[in-house]
């Protein structure tokens, strides 16, 4: 086999992936970019409007910046809780005092692999103001006199979503922290114990600094993943025919409208504005790209 043929061998084996990527990835990306420059309802002809859709994102009626603010709020409130809970459970499971570690790791990781649809519907049932378990429990304990409309109040609705996302995501951080703890040399902790350091001193001076790369990775992926939040709040506030479902998209005063939910409702909801929906998607893509770039730069700076 000559040199020219050898050069083409890798591309031959990569060709199935490349063909599928161009057909179902690259070409749709270019098509959606073109759609974002048009006014199209999916049925009638496309009307080229240039950057009007992108200009409309700055209009309050687009709810773009409101949805971005809601999404960033959820990330800012949820990610620290996931890190703290995940690190605490990982530290406890990695210690020598806990038995059946594999069983407890599985139990704590199960919420993360539950489908978002199931999570949203489950919390919808728990916090339903008419027949929800939470209200019934609080009434039985005498802590409240009447059921709280959890998903009808902006503050309560946001707190329920933060609780839901924290419960679902802490298993993800736990797994990474367990892997990070396993890579810390045990000699360091043993030397600290010999020198008379307490558990807290060892944790703050040795464990946390050595887990910094893991924490940085979790923060970066958590922000990127959080910006794509959709199914959980949609199913939670959309309900399953329950009394807690809300008529307004995004909950009361659109307090829980995420960016992807806004894009989905704009493109496939009652208005069916594919062009504006595509513009929202590219606006979100730009925000994610900025955070990815900053995260990569910061990570390289830490490694350097």
UniProtKB/TrEMBL annotation:
SUPFAM superfamilies: MetI-like (SSF161098). It is a multi-pass membrane protein. The chain crosses the membrane at residues 12-35, 72-94, 106-127, 155-179, 210-230, 274-296. Keywords: Cell membrane, Membrane, Transmembrane, Transmembrane helix, Transport. The keyword ATP-binding does not apply. InterPro entries: ABC_transporter_permease, MetI-like, MetI-like_sf. It is found in: Cell membrane. Pfam families: BPD_transp_1. Residues 68-295 form the ABC transmembrane type-1 domain. PANTHER family: ABC TRANSPORTER PERMEASE PROTEIN, INNER MEMBRANE ABC TRANSPORTER PERMEASE PROTEIN YCJO. Belongs to the binding-protein-dependent transport system permease family. This is Carbohydrate ABC transporter permease. It comes from Paenibacillus aestuarii.
